[in-house]
Every structure is written in C-alpha cells, then in structure tokens.
Amino acid sequence: MIKKFIHQFASPKTYLFQVNKLYSYILYSSIFIYALSITWGLLFVPEDFVQGNSFRIIYLHVPASFLSQSLYAAMAIASVTYLVWRVKLAAYLIIAIAPIGAMVTFIALSSGSIWGIPTWGTWWQWDARITSTLILFIMYLGLISLHNSFSNYEKADKLLSWLVIVGFVNIPIIKKSVDWWSTLHQSASITLTNKPSIDPSMLYPLIGSTIGFFGLIICLVIISSKVQIIKRENTKSWIKDYV
Amino acid sequence: MKSLKLEFLKLKKKTRSWLGPILVFWLIMIAYPLTVELLPENLEVGFFSVLWIATLISMMLATEDIFLEDFNDGTLEQTIIKTTSFSSLVSTKVFIYWVLIGIPISILSFIFSFGTTENFDTSLMIFPLSIISSYIFLNLFVLGNALSLNKGSVLGALVTIPLALPVLVVLGKGVVAIQFNINFSGFIFLLLGCLSIIIVAVPLVVSYIIKAHLE
C-alpha cells in the first residue's frame, strides 16, 4: 500500500494536484506558528544575561541554519531516488530546492554575521562552522550553475544528482565542525541525546519559529517545484488543463 | 598494464598538458617572494598557504582537458562499449597524471619549502602532505571536469573547489602540527583516509557521469 502510494505520489500530475490541496493549510499554519513564536521570542522572552537583546536574532538564525543543511539532505535523498528509481519528480525537486537552499543559507550567513557584531565584535571570522556554511552556499550556487549550463534537461538532472551526492560530504563536516575544531561558534545547544543547554523560556519559541520557518520554506519548495513541473511537462495534455 | 603504458604515452606526448601545470606552480612560487619584503621571516609567514593554493591551482589546470580529447575523438564511447571497466580507465588516467604532474610538484614543494624555511625536517614532512594532497586534488578536479566535460573548465572548477576546501583546512592544520611538533602523523593518516575513499569513489562516480554525457 505504501509502495503504491509512493508510486502514485511520484507522478508529477498526482503531486501537483495533491500539494495544491495541502498548500494553503501548510502556508496559513506556518504563518500563524512563525508569527506567534517570533512575537513570543521578541517581546516576551527575558533578555539574555550575557548577550542582552541581541540574542533574539536566534529566532531567524537557527531555523535558517537548520534548514540550510536539511534542504541539502533533502536534495541528496531526491538525488538517490532519481538515480536509482528514475523518479522524474525527484529530479524536479532537486532543482526546485537548490535556489531556496542558497537563499536560506545566505539568510543563515548574514543573520550570523549581524549577530557576530555585538557578540564577537566582528562581522566575519574564518571559523570552521562559518567557513563550512559558506562552502555550502557556494555549493548551492555551483549546483544551480551546473544545471543551467545544459540545455538537455535529462543530462543536467543526472549530473546534478551526482554532484549533490558527492557534495553531501560537506553536511557532516558542517554539523561536526564545532566539535572537530576549536571554533568561535558555540557548540549545539539542542541535541537529540542531551538535555538542551538553552533555557526553556527561550527554547519553546525557538522550536516554534523553527517549525514555522520550516513550513514556510516547504511552501516555497512547493511553488518552485510547481514551476519546474509546468516548465518540464508542458507538452502533456493534463498540464494544459491545469494551467 | 597496457592501458597504463598507453595513458602514459598519451600524456607524455601532450607536453603542454603536463609541463604547463608544473611551470605554473613554479611561477607562482617564484612570484610569491616578489610580493613581500625580502626578509626571511616575512616569507615564511604566508609561504605554506601559497604552496597549497599553488598546488590546488596546478592540479586544476592539469585536469583541464583530461577527458576532452578522448571525448572528441570517440575514445570514451569505444571504451564504454568495450567490456573493460571504465572506472579503472579513470583511475589509470588519474594515476598517470599524478605521476607526471603531482609527484614533480611535490618534489618542487620540498625544494621551495627548504629554500624558504631552511629547515630540512619541516620540508621533509611537507613532502608527504604535498604528495597525498596532490592526488586528492587531482581526483576532485577530475570529477569537476567530468561534470563539465564540454562546457569549459571554469564550471568544473566552480563546482569542485568547494569540495577541496576542507582538504586545504587539513593541510593548514598539518603545517601547524609540523611547526609545533604535535601529532603530525595524525594528519597524514587523515589525508590517507580521505584519499582511500576518494580513490575508490571518484572513478566510479566519474564513469557514471561520463556515461550520462554519452547517452
């Protein structure tokens, strides 16, 4: 049954009609959750003892950083799916995610840079976490330029998928960079194994803002993937009815 | 063995392809002292950074046309049709490039290092770092060039340099370990570990990429 569902959902046509139904629910709930969490985080959470009010950028920086890596991981899964099972939708998703991933990584880098001024006294530091995130940003740009340089979409999809898989090596490096190198960037405050080192009054709006931001990015991915499907499947009769 | 000899002769005949990167490396290392005041301590400060960047650029240039000629004259298509493993051909090519370009550059690295630092032990330890890193860089740039086979080497470099940057970080830390005499062998093993993965994975991935180009 699951296999049947996956195969049905993997069809661009089914995907397009299914996500259309889900889109507004995801969008409105994400806006609500993010707005609520941001308001909570900016207005009601107490000031940090060391960093003062500057820590409040955490409600943008952490979700963006989390998403920058998660989106790449999603691209890697889609790449494997495309290369192994030849699922066309997976190829559309890879190129749909890449510019959004670049944008989110840019938000993570720039918000971190703004946060760096009051906290570290510098906009930029060639620190392992920051540098590896910059590498991720360049990787995203490289992926986009590689795909755009081929007019044959099928060939571009295959090459892009291989590069995404090879580039995935950067993700564990980013994740573990704060442990492997002595960095200015702090180590993770929230892990799966240990109790969070962040105060609960700051933690709950952070979780909320991460979920809300995640939902908003999902909406962007849906829009971007719809554009890809319309562009690539434009010869099909059903797409004419859809448009 | 036959393909090894064939690839060696092919590269040896293309003098520009193997001599060019070595000369570029040489010129960068000669140009470096001209950009700083000629005091030995000033030269030493940035020397190793320039050395690794020069190695990176030379390896990038070395692989510029590694598949292009074979792609244009149909050799790649013939090889894929034949039963011989395509990934072993890629491994052979990379190995020959490393022998003719990577090893001479590593020897030059040792000479320039000794000339600048006047420390034989340090320079001797730079040699294995250089020899392993040149092989890693070659493999990475081969991957980039396979991806951008007939689209120019700039695109290949753009998509591959981010993958080479962690190696540069390790090389920088390796030099610090040499200078402070702390666990230098750890970095050698780390690079060898990376190389052992790359040496297996890259030819395999490159063979799939080239097949995608030829389909």
Structure, explained:
The complex is a heterodimer of chains A (243) and B (215). Chain A has 9 helices and no strands. The model of chain A has no long low-confidence stretch (mean pLDDT 90). The two termini of chain A are 31 Å apart. Chain A is globular. Chain A has helices at residues 2-9, 12-44, 58-85, 88-120, 128-148, 153-167, 170-180, 200-232, 237-242. The mean pLDDT of chain B is 89. In chain B, α1 (2-13) crosses α6 (86-117). Chain B has one domain. In chain B, 39% of the residues are buried. The interface between A and B is medium-sized, with 25 and 20 residues.
What labels would you give this structure?
heterodimer, A: 243 residues, mainly alpha, Four Helix Bundle (Hemerythrin (Met), subunit A), 0% strand, B: 215 residues, 86% helix, elongated
How large is the share of residues in beta strands of chain B?
A: under 5%
Backbone CA Rg of chain B:
18 Å
Elements of chain A, N to C (H/E): HHHHHHHHH
Low-confidence stretches of chain B at least 5 residues in length (pLDDT < 50)? none
How confident overall, as mean pLDDT of chain B?
A: 89
- What is the third-level CATH name, the topology of chain A? Four Helix Bundle (Hemerythrin (Met), subunit A)
Overview in brief:
With 243 residues, chain A is mostly helical. Chain A is built from 9 helices and no strands. Chain A has one domain (20-188, 200-242): Four Helix Bundle (Hemerythrin (Met), subunit A).
Question: What is the fold's blueprint, element by element?
Answer:
The complex is a heterodimer of chains A (about 240) and B (about 220).
Chain A: H1 2-9, H2 12-44, H3 58-85, H4 88-120, H5 128-148, H6 153-167, H7 170-180, H8 200-232, H9 237-242
Chain B: H1 2-13, H2 15-34, H3 40-62, H4 68-72, H5 75-81, H6 86-117, H7 120-147, H8 153-179, H9 184-214
